[in-house]
Amino acid sequence: MKYSVLLSNAIQSKNYSLSELANKLEEFDVKIDKGYLSKLRSGTKSPASDRVNEALAKVLYIDPLELRIAAYKEKIPDDVLERLGNDFYE
């Protein structure tokens, strides 16, 4: 699943506003504003760092590994991702 879709679904399922989410992230020493969260959710910003994703997963009660995998898939160049898909389990 695409990172932005995963994040958007998680935010929607918790019924959090982006301001509420930003405030909850501060409990995990992650200070980001609602504008940045909006860009992550819409996919106009590349996926967040592992540290931010860990905090998002805790606040949103989602699997942190699933969120990180979705982020990595979007950060890895297509040719590398294709090669990983073909050779990863060999």
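[next item in queue]
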Amino acid sequence: MKGIIIVSKFWTRFFSAGNASAITIFPFVFLRDKSLKEDEILINHERIHLSQVTELLIVPFYTWYLIEFIVRFLKYRQFRRAYLNISFEREAYRNENNLSYLKARKIWSFWRYL
């Protein structure tokens, strides 16, 4: 899934509490700046999230994401470290440079990153 890309500084900040350059809120990918549309790695990262959302369905994905973030935050006591250790983020960051990843990605691949 490619998603609908929307450039909006407001919505990107709103959905990420001002912490992200891009954020996926299915089926949209919000980008903070127009120039980010050309960032293939960032777009690939967000498309990995679109695949994850599609697999788990919308509400279960975001529920799991939030619960996992809370658990990681309680463990690490640092926002950034908690965020980077969410299984969905670990999969996306580890594979964002592989622009062919989504073609070969198996369903529920994020499980390997729990």
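[queue empty]
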